[in-house]
Each structure stands twice: as structure tokens, then as C-alpha cells.
Specification:
four-stranded antiparallel sheet; 2 domains; globular; Rieske Iron-sulfur Protein; 14 strands; single chain; 1 helix; about 15% helix; alpha+beta
Length: about 150
């Protein structure tokens, strides 16, 4: 292949990858829910788990609560109609903030992986995530002792 054709092909590839990655990022956005403190508990609306797109109700599989006190965020996963799991997004190996997606938590620092329930799937972490008990009513989700 001629050098000019090679460079042209590389430029198209790089430009195409940039457009594709920005398009993919817009498909899966992370939603930060608004929570209020109620004593030792955090409270969010169940409606945080859905949004409207093109006149259709779209459900979210998880939402993240950024805590005001500077602590690590808490991720709430919706498992079933009225069943939720909440875990602190702090890796138990070295304390890095976890990423969430694809139904698992991953540590960007050393590669540990955790299930939605906070159980270690892959080391080097060997301790499960801090999880919170959850209660619900018709309108709200209560994260106890958060």
C-alpha cells in the first residue's frame, strides 16, 4: 500500500472511531438521582428509575446517588419490580471509586469486579462491597443507615 493511501485510511479510521464512540456514549448515560436525607437514611423517588424518550417510558437499571458529605457514591440497582440493591462504590482492595455498567462494578485501579449485590467476582479485592438494606413504599426507596 502506498504511504498516502495508508495515511488516508488511518485518518478515516480515527475519525470514524471518534464519531462512533461519542454516539455510543450518548446511548448509555449514567443517571445521578436526587436523594434527601431522612435521619440516618437516604430517600429517593422510584420515578428516578425511568425517563421519557420519544414519548416512551424508558426504565433505568441503576441510578447513582452522589453524597453531599464527600463520601463515595452509592449505586442502586433495580433487580425486579420492587426489589433494589444498594452498594457503596468504593473498592475494598485499595479504595478506588468503582465504575458501574453491564450489571457489574469494576475497579479502574486494579481490575477487581463485583456483582450487583456487592459480592467479589474477581480479585485482587477479597472483601465484598459495603451494602445497604433497602425498604420501599408506593412512591419512595429508602436506603437505610446510608
Amino acid at each position: 500500500m502506498e504511504r498516502r493511501k495508508f495515511l488516508k485510511a488511518c485518518c478515516y479510521t480515527v475519525a470514524g472511531a471518534g464519531v462512533l464512540s461519542s454516539g455510543l456514549q450518548s446511548c448509555g448515560t449514567t443517571h445521578y438521582a436526587v436523594a434527601r436525607k431522612d435521619g440516618a437514611n437516604l430517600v429517593i423517588l422510584k420515578s428516578e428509575f425511568w425517563t421519557m424518550r420519544n414519548d416512551k417510558k424508558v426504565n433505568r437499571s441503576f441510578v447513582i446517588i452522589q453524597q453531599d458529605n464527600g463520601e463515595f457514591p452509592i449505586c442502586i440497582n433495580k433487580i425486579e419490580k420492587d426489589k433494589y440493591l444498594a452498594s457503596l462504590m468504593k473498592c475494598t482492595h485499595r479504595g478506588c471509586e468503582l465504575n458501574v455498567g453491564g450489571g457489574i462494578y469494576t475497579c479502574p485501579c486494579h481490575g477487581s469486579e463485583f456483582s450487583q449485590s456487592g459480592k467479589v467476582l474477581e480479585g485482587p479485592a477479597d472483601v465484598d462491597l459495603k451494602s445497604y438494606e433497602i425498604r420501599t413504599d408506593n412512591e419512595y426507596i429508602y436506603i437505610l443507615n446510608a
